[in-house]
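Today's session is about reading a structure prediction critically. Students often jump straight to the picture, but the first step is always the sequence itself: look for stretches that repeat, for charged clusters, for runs of hydrophobic residues. Only then move on to the predicted structure, which in these notes is written as discrete structure tokens rather than atom positions. Here is the chain we will use throughout the hour.
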Amino acid sequence: MAIPARAIHHLSETQVRCKPVVVIVGPTAAGKSRVAVEVAKAFETEVLTADSRQVYRGMDVGTDKPVPEERQGVAHRLIDLVNPDESFNAGLYRRQALDEIERLYRDCRLPLVVGGAGLYVRTLLQGLCEAPPADPILRAALRQEAKEQGLDHLYARLVAVDSAAAARLHPRDESKVIRALEVYQLSGRRMSEFQQEHGFAERPFSALIVGLNRDRDALYRRIEERIDWQLAHGLIEETKQLLAQGYQRDSSAMKGLGYRQVAEHLAGEYDAAEMVRRFKRDTRHFSKRQMTWFRKEPGIQWLTIEESESAQHTAELVIRQIERFLTTLEGRG
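Below is the predicted structure for this chain, in token form.
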């Protein structure tokens, strides 16, 4: 199904004053990227990526960055921002994303944010709590503690000082567990207290949030097919190159899906078949955690993509939602 020709969709002055942002979210392998490219072409805009792993340079196959042919001439921003050994977080993402959004407003173009990083999207749309900034020395000490005594030990420490924050985190989510402990040690206050006070109540934008999902069996099949493709198209070689460049297995970037399992296989911890099994299992679990997060987020308008449905057809449904959204904003003037 071809997307019908339209007039150029530049924002009016009234719409710009309303600060519209369109966000496309959903679990990994749902098909967000292909749909986003079609939507971006229809509105002559760019894709602002919200992916906590695509920010790393040199990590392309394993993070499923769209190759130039897949981007179809559409600019993709907020990828390749830092090296794999550099720190990056939701606050830094928000700062750079706001700059990109303001640039698009100056050109009267619609910001289109696309990705599966729920925290990045929430932080962008609802602001940051006033917790103390990261302390590199303390953070390094906590990482070393996790390496020596295990992440379960750190998680147990967090449960003891901030059970509310711990209950919201996966016990294996090292970066968030460390951040919550860091906040407590720096301020003497619980991360959950900062979050409760903030309430994530800022609303700097008029946001339309569209969620894309698939039937669970279809989604899992797509996850497994994508992993097979990644392994056949250079993920093992990419991981070897990153390790050869000196990036450590215990860094946040190298603990990402795919890289972690391949690196453990290369270190002789298990054979290739077990590596593939773990990679697919862990990615399925990750997609479930993504959906658990997004289901708790208010205001998402969900579309279930059928297996026979083309990206162009799904994009057309999203485009119609956006047109209604922009018409409503125009009426506010």
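Discussion point for the tutorial: Residues 28 and 286 are 8 Å apart (CA to CA).
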